Structure formats: C-alpha cells, structure tokens
C-alpha cells in the first residue's frame, strides 16, 4: 500500500473526542500514557492511532481540569512511568461527554437517513 493511501484508511479524531476516548479508557483502570494509546488503538480495531504529540497535551489538559490525576510509579519492566487515573469529577465529565456524543450520533443518523425532498 502506498504511503498516501495508508493514511486514507485511518480516521482522524474530531477535536474534543480524544478527551472522551481517554476518559473512557481510564474508566477501565489506571494506565500510563503508552497503554492508553494502545487501548484506544486496540478498542477501535486499529482505526484510531493516537500519537504522542496529541496524547500527552490532552493528558496534561485533563489533569489541569481535574478530570484525571497522575502519579509516578514503577512499571513491571522496572521503568518509571506516569500512571493516570480518572477522578470523580472526570467520571461526571465522562457521563456528560458520552451524552453529547450520543446526541451527535443521533443528529448525524437523522441527516444521513433523511430522504431528499
């Protein structure tokens, strides 16, 4: 597959959607940054590939909002990693974000299913 075509198979994540994906991923348990990116990639069937240039600024933003908290820990491989977990405020934000996403899906479905008049 030519490099140009390879990118056509990937879906760009809408702005604001990355926050939802991160919060949802942390709902399943605390993880370090690389594991979050891998979980999003795996759960999306390799459709979403979150690069570090997007992931870490999003994690820092979510931490500033108080939606996630982070602490330094040691991984199984004896490496120092920053472990992120969702906070109670983050859980409330996740509910709100999921509700907005459901509204967006319903609106898109309505437009896509609408017959031309």
Q: Could you characterize what this model shows?
A:
This protein is of the alpha+beta class and 117 residues long. It is 58% helix and 14% strand. The protein has five helices and three strands, in the order ααβααββα. The protein has a three-stranded antiparallel beta sheet with strand order 1-3-2. Strand 2 (68-74) and strand 3 (80-86) form a beta hairpin. Helix 2 (17-27) packs across helix 3. The longest helix has 26 residues, at 88-113. The radius of gyration is 17 Å and the shape is elongated. The N and C termini lie far apart (41 Å). The model has no long low-confidence stretch (mean pLDDT 88).
Topology:
Elements lengths: L2 H6 L8 H11 L3 E2 H11 L8 H14 L2 E7 L5 E7 L1 H26 L4
Antiparallel strand pairs: 1-3, 2-3
What are the salient characteristics of this protein?
single chain; 117 residues; alpha+beta; Arc Repressor Mutant, subunit A; 5 helices; 3 strands
Quick rundown:
The chain has helices spanning 3-8, 17-27, 33-43, 52-65, 88-113; strands at residues 31-32, 68-74, 80-86.
- Report how far the terminal alpha carbons are from each other: 41 Å
Q: How does CATH name the architecture? A: Orthogonal Bundle
Proportion of residues in helical segments: 55-70%
Supply the number of structural domains: 1
Strand order of the largest sheet: 1-3-2
What coarse outline follows from CA principal-axis ratios?
A: elongated
What's the total helix number? 5
How large is the radius of gyration?
17 Å
Unreliable parts: none
* Beta strand %: 5-15%
Topology as a string of helices (H) and strands (E): HHEHHEEH
The first-level CATH class is given as Mainly Alpha
What is the third-level CATH name, the topology? Arc Repressor Mutant, subunit A
């Amino acid at each position: 597959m030519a490099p140009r075509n390879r990118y056509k198979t990937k879906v760009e994540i809408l702005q604001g959607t990355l926050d939802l994906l991160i919060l949802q991923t942390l709902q399943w348990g605390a993880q370090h940054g690389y594991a979050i990116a891998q979980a999003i990639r795996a759960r999306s069937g390799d459709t979403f590939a979150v690069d570090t240039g997007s992931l870490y600024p999003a994690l820092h933003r979510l931490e500033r909002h108080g939606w996630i908290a982070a602490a330094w820990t040691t991984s199984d491989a004896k490496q120092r990693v920053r472990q992120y977990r969702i906070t109670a405020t983050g859980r409330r934000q996740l509910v709100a974000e999921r509700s907005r996403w459901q509204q967006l899906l319903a609106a898109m479905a309505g437009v896509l299913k609408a017959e031309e008049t």
